[in-house]
């Protein structure tokens, strides 16, 4: 029987928090390999294990060690860290494995590629001659940079299913795989995890919108619905292991709710499953209706996050939300029983021609509704219109993925600085602490 090792690599960054993080691509890869009769073993460099305590709903900090800061980040007054288990924990695990036929390594944000490179370096200390295949988000969006960092690895660009099957001989072993008869299953990947504090829910892949800052369309070209029965099975399986907290990974959870969300929540209820659901990816403001809010409240949704982004920079946000639509959404959701202070609203910072004053104004508006403003600093993502816009200003974006780091990039924009970013974070904390200023029954018009 062929054998494969699957590795979720370290992250090297200024910050990282386990807000229901899961490498779904690696879970699905595990399922596909098992379908093809491949023996698999999984190592998670980001396994929190017993090293850190849980905080809210199973979230928490990752263990980490300080590492040298790249020269371009000298202006960032924060420690640079490698997040995850110790280096020797991985090499010790590798030394216990019999020699595999192939080793798969995942990748996340493009500016995390150095963590991928360190994972491959650890692999090479034990298995110097085994083929290494790197896939995932970073491999798809920044393949040239990844090939420069790890020249002896095979980089799989695009969806895995596009790289498998006869005639796909560029990457070893993938040509011998087939998806015929395969039913994607997240449980096999979850089963390989040493601890399960929470679990993911994935009802759909892709997004119907084409926002200028988002690469969802490049990663998943079509909006695809997974079988409802399979998703309910995955939730039920995790509940058997005592998991209570589930995070939705859908990019457009509220799109076509009669076909996806409502049947899924009915299936969960009919199975007698009691869960706490969370939406860290952010929900579309304009698709929230009274029926949807009521259904989500009844189903046990606790963390409600919304992608408001900006009411003024419509070219970049695909006109996702106006101030009036946000105010209406808050009223709809609070009438369904969600406290306004439990609603997190993402406000994007760093869009073209956007200044700190614009962001602070949006933060204050969100707080005036009673919701919690949550600033999100833009990371320019390859294969998006916003990336192309900024690459004309900063050619370094196309050569060095470290430039994509939100903590660094926004500070380089005209009118911005690291100090301005910190002031926005502080104001958001203060506004959230005050719980907003809105009075019951007050209506806020579009501005």
The biggest beta sheet is recorded as: 6 strands, parallel
Number of domains: 2
Uncertain stretches: 436-447
User: Which geometry do the CA atoms define?
Assistant: globular
Structural class: alpha/beta
Gyration radius from CA atoms, angstroms: 22 Å
CATH architecture term of the largest domain = Alpha-Beta Barrel
The CATH class assignment of the largest domain is Alpha Beta
The average pLDDT value, as a whole number, equals 91
DSSP strand tally: 18
Count of alpha/pi helices: 16
Q: How far is the first residue's CA from the last residue's CA?
A: 64 Å
Strand content: 15-25%
Give me the side-by-side strand order of the main sheet. 11-14-15-16-17-18
Please provide a brief summary of the model:
The chain has 16 helices and 18 strands.
Q: Can you describe this structure?
A:
This protein is of the alpha/beta class. The chain has 2 domains: 3-176, Cobalamin-binding domain (Rossmann fold, 3-Layer(aba) Sandwich); 198-434, Aldolase class I (TIM Barrel). It has 16 helices and 18 strands. The strands form 5 sheets. Strands 11-14-15-16-17-18 form a 6-stranded parallel β-sheet. Residues 436-447 have low confidence and may be disordered.
